[in-house]
Amino acid sequence: MPPPKKLKRPRAPKIPHKTRRHGHVLHDDYNWMRERKHPKVLSYLKAENAYTDAVMKPTEATQKKLYREMVGRIKETDCSVPVKIDKYYYYYRTKKGKQYTIQCRRKSSVTGPEEVFLDVNRMARGHSYFQLGACTVSPDHRYLAYAIDTNGNETYTLRIKDLKTGKLLPDEITGIGTNVVWAEDGETLFYVMLDPASRPFKLFRHRINSSPAQDCLVYHETDDAFFLSISKTKSRKFLLIETGSRTSSEVLFLPATEPAGRFKMVERRRHAVEYSVEHHGKWFYIVTNDHAKSFRLMRAPVPSPGRKWWREVIGHRIDVKLEDFDVFADYLVLYEREKGLAHIRIMALKGGRSHRIKFPEPVYTVWGGQNPEFNSRRLRFAYNSLVTPTSVYEYDMKTRRRFLKKQMPVLGGYKPTNYKCERVFAKSHDGTAIPISLVYRRGMKRDGTNPLLLYGYGSYGISIDPEFSSHRISLLNRGFIYAIAHIRGGGDLGRVWYEDGKLLKKKNTFEDFIASAEHVIQSKYTARDKLVIYGGSAGGLLMGAVINKRPDLFYAVIAKVPFVDIMNTMLDKKLPLTIPEYEEWGNPEKKKYFSYMRSYSPYDNVTDQRYPHMLITGGLNDPRVQYWEPAKWTAKLREVQRDDKILLLKMNMGAGHGGASGRYDYLREIAFDYAFLLDGLRLRKSGRPTPKP
Asked: N or C, which end of the chain has less CB nearby within 10 Å?
């Protein structure tokens, strides 16, 4: 579906702008788009949105149909599994037709009288965007502290509600992040303020019913590469200040019953050494990469927690990454990753015997649930796969029995047996085997006629696990194959996998993705004229890099809030995240990093060549990837556009990095993306009717 010939493509004016570094000149004719309040900026963004609406107008019927299908698969009026905290059971409900959750609790039992303490739908009235951040109840369950964001810039306002009277306290604190923790006295809470670059940098102590102007500054993180946070140990005995960069961390502790006291150091920060802390009885348990690339578990006495006193509990295993852990009165729970799969190991504190929980499928995803109760032998976790809906279990760590508490309902006649998932491997440029997870309808023939959506991310050591998606069924039922390329730069195969795709090895990420695309074509899962790639944020950088290098390999691209203007962003220290990101991408003030980043930066390497069809999205209030990155990239791509390929920019003028906040609005955005593929690009599987939803 090429754009109508009479429809004029938006053109952004070019104003020369140069940046000089290391003897090189960066030309940026669209630098003026950074002036958010300039009339030309909003005019251009509105013109792009109008053009996108016009091009996509013929797909409106398909968008509506897809939306109805996706809504038809969810149980609109539903309830989460209650979580027991002391004498209360906390949960949330959703109601048909309502965008947001209703936060509730019951006292003494799950059948006791319901108390609605926060109806997010009522709070969101009058706002096109609404996000509930912190939502935490005081230790005596009397007060609720919550934080809200009404424009998507991830800067929150803190309010406190008296749950006994139902009234809001006069306390109101603006400019904070989502991090809020109560001390054990029930009247003191700690919160973290954001600096002008949206970095959490100052910790304050606040007494309820007092003016924020009287709040005490407890800690100031002055290093721009470090983010500050506050938490409480599961035992409720200690408050923990945690401050960390991409590669280093530091923890301080304070008895939670002494909020006015002075925090003490666990171990001072050291370059490239990370650690995290939990409390159990006389000990602090510590997970660290100190002399352990894949991390190991240590413990130290509470009075003397420094590194000198660390003693090993679980040694380093290079092929098994220790990602996280949890503590119970009688057990340790270890969250491990081996050969690309997440595992849960249970270790008895008496005797040290351990076992892994077994799961039924060869490719799956599992993660820990809410486990606030220290004196419990039951572990809550969630499980799903590309074909199995999310299931919440409780596992008896002594008897090894598991209890299904709830499986996410998928309405509309969904049957997992109608679908199949598998894992295959592609060979990258240096011989490394790259895992690819795939899901499709049974009966799929590998004859090169299937449209395939290939997803990739590959940054920050984040693992992209094979998770279930009910809305993805709309693509699978129309003959699509969905695939995930588990490329380097992510954490899918451990710490080494991450380190082999960052800094001066970043191009491995792009080569791995290209190899994955070539593999699914060579294996006849799909063909070049049916292969669509998809990525967002740092995954958007991936999209930009691979289409610059191999535009012939892909039919279409969906790039969500793409981080594509890496040179200009990383050279601007005033922007959010720039300095902390040096440890991920490199510091361009150093020539070796400047040259390397410049060689792959998507925006700087746009050339006069035939690009795939493209749908690019952004958020005007995005603090992570500024709106001008997708806007400038689109404008530069239009410069070299010489054919009738579709090139669309869809800018959300009232949201941030995550797009729409309401659950129905979120599904409408997905329906738009899918309609772009199905009608806009006519990528339905040929020779096969679309199953009725």
From this structure: N
CA 389/CA 245 separation, integer angstroms = 35
**Sign (positive or negative) of CA dihedral 470, 471, 477, 482:** negative
DSSP 32-62: GGG-TT-HHHHHHHHHHHHHHHHHHGGGHHH
Q: Which residues contact 413 (CB under 8 A, 6 or more apart)?
A: none
Q: Which residues are catalytically annotated?
A: 537, 622, 657
194: β partners: 200
Q: Please tell me what DSSP assigns to residue 692.
A: P
Q: What is the pLDDT of residues 373-403, one digit of tens each?
A: 999 999 999 999 999 999 999 999 999 999 9
Contact yes or no for 279/237 (Cβ under 8 A):
yes
| Interaxial angle between packed helices 663-675 and 60-73, expressed in degrees from 0 to 180 and rounded to the nearest 10 | 130
Query: How does pLDDT run across 27-70, given as a tens digit for each residue?
Result: 999 999 999 988 899 999 999 999 999 999 999 999 999 999 99
Q: Which one, of 275, 309, 269, lies nearest residue 291 by Cα?
A: 275
- Mode of pairing for the β-strands spanning 556-560 and 613-619: parallel
pLDDT digits (tens, 9 = 90+) for 496-545: 999 999 999 999 999 999 999 999 999 999 999 999 999 999 999 999 99
- Distance (Å, rounded) from C-alpha 165 to C-alpha 577? 41
**Spacing of C-alpha 571 from chain mean position:** 25
Q: And the tokens for 574?
A: 């005033």
Return all residues near 578 (Cβ < 8 A) that are at least 6 apart: 197, 569, 570, 572
Please report, as a single letter, which amino acid is at residue 563. Answer: F
Alpha carbon 552 to its chain centroid, in Å, reads 30
Q: Domain limits of the chain? A: 42-69+420-680, 323-412
What does the alpha-carbon distance between residue 528 and residue 514 come to, in Å, rounded to a whole number?
Answer: 12
In which order are the strands placed within the sheet that holds 341-348? 320-327, 331-338, 341-348, 354-356
**pLDDT-based confidence at residue 193 (cuts at 50, 70, 90):** very high
Of the candidates 143, 240, 348, the residue with the CA atom closest to the CA atom of residue 135: 143
Secondary structure letter of residue 656 according to DSSP: B
- Using CA atoms, how far apart are residues 633 and 629, in angstroms rounded to an integer? 6
Q: Residue 632 and residue 616: Cα distance in Å, rounded?
A: 11
Q: Which amino acid is at 106?
A: R
CATH number 3.40.50.1820 is the correct assignment for the domain at 42-69+420-680? yes
Q: Could you report the per-residue pLDDT of 172-189, keeping only the tens digit for each?
A: 999 999 999 999 999 999
Distance CA 403, CA 393 (A): 5
Structure pTM?
A: 0.96
Q: Calculate the alpha carbon distances from 620 to 42, 193, 403, 594 in Å.
A: 10, 23, 45, 28
> Using an 8 Å Cβ cutoff, are 463 and 364 in contact?
no
